[in-house]
Amino acid sequence: LALGDLQKFSRGVAGFLGGVEQRGVDLWLTPTMSAPPARIGEITSTAAEPLRALANGAPTVAYPLVVANITGGPAMSVPLGSTPDGLPLGVHFLARFGDEATLLRLAAQIEQARPWAHALPPVNAASA
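RE: above sequence
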């Protein structure tokens, strides 16, 4: 039953996005996360609190990425802003099944309009 529900959901998303022969939407745009990134250690479980990571982390990533995982559709997350503290905020794009080319073209256009390759948050691997 669960697999049937997942397949039905995937067909619904495919219908929303449309195929080559039918006019749908080009991409599904959502936030990457529902809140800014958690501070280091906030979503780490401990022996005393084994479910801490789930409780503190799951609400922030509960929706957009799951749709891509369920449907198998191509998706990307692109940093398009930042918090007042300089942490990156991303947007998530889901494309039609097999349409990675649209994502790659969009990523190139966004990178040209709002370059992010050299933007590093205050805490990053290069600053360690």
